[in-house]
Each structure stands twice: as C-alpha cells, then as structure tokens.
Amino acid sequence: MSAESLPITPVAFAEAIKELTLPVLYAKVAELQNSIAHLRRSNQELRHFISESCESQADREELEGYIAENDGVEKSMIERIELCKAEVERRGQTWIELGADANGTTSTEGEGEQGQGQPAREDSTASASMNGTSSNTEAHPAERLRDRDNDGEDDGLYL
C-alpha cells in the first residue's frame, strides 16, 4: 500500500454514506462483498502455494505477510458493510441482505454454507418491492439498484 494513498477512516466513511441514496448504499455493499470474496480466494491460493510450492523461508514469510495484510483489509471491509447497514437502519428502513451475511460470506442458491463468492439470488419481485425498486428483469438486486441510480453523471463520491 502506498504511503500517499490511505483508505478512508471508518468515521469519515460513516459520514460520507449519509449522503448516499439507498440504492447506492446497497451497491456499495455488493462491491465490498465482491472484494471480500476476491481477498478470501487470493488468501486461499497463497496458502496453497506456501504449503505446496514455497521453497525459501524468506518467501514464505513475505507471502504470510500478504495474507495478514489481506485479512486486515477484509476486516475493514466488513466494518464498512456494518456501517452501511447501520446507516440504512438509522433512516428507519429495514436492512435487506444481498446474499451475504455481515461477515461478507456469500452463499450460492440452495447452498447453506459459504460459497465461492457468488451471491445467492433472491426472488426478484420480493426484493424489488422491499427495497423500493421495480423491474421485470432477472438482474441481481444489487445490479438493479446500481443501474437505477446510475444516470450517467459522476456524483464525485467514491468510497
């Protein structure tokens, strides 16, 4: 990580998301869940490489350092998901899970355990009516939310 580019603090993140619409909040959560899934896959691959192919102790220690850094980033992302949930509930709305638990764990449809980073599909009609969107398409709820709020203009806020 560059010393010049630091991630936004949790306090600043919580303040910034107050300005976002509900669809954008849910899109942010979907983005964070996707990032968590990629971090977990990366760590799994690094662990496999360490156990199967890593020859030198120095390389092993360096890779374990990357795994630890990824774990820290994942915890930060989980905290941001919780902040988004708290913001939705602060507005008096009911939080709707987008196929992942608060820890960023996603499951595939019909699968009760952790999946391979694929969010579970929800009933399109039920989730659309619950989150204020309506669509006859079979797009994932997060995709519909993101598309609805994307009017081609850059709001200038990227979290």
UniProtKB/TrEMBL annotation:
<feature type="region of interest" description="Disordered">
    <location>
        <begin position="96"/>
        <end position="159"/>
    </location>
</feature>
<dbReference type="InterPro" id="IPR038966">
    <property type="entry name" value="TMA17"/>
</dbReference>
<feature type="compositionally biased region" description="Polar residues">
    <location>
        <begin position="125"/>
        <end position="138"/>
    </location>
</feature>
<protein>
    <submittedName>
        <fullName>Uncharacterized protein</fullName>
    </submittedName>
</protein>
<feature type="compositionally biased region" description="Acidic residues">
    <location>
        <begin position="150"/>
        <end position="159"/>
    </location>
</feature>
<feature type="compositionally biased region" description="Basic and acidic residues">
    <location>
        <begin position="140"/>
        <end position="149"/>
    </location>
</feature>
<dbReference type="GO" id="GO:0030674">
    <property type="term" value="F:protein-macromolecule adaptor activity"/>
</dbReference>
<dbReference type="GO" id="GO:0070682">
    <property type="term" value="P:proteasome regulatory particle assembly"/>
</dbReference>
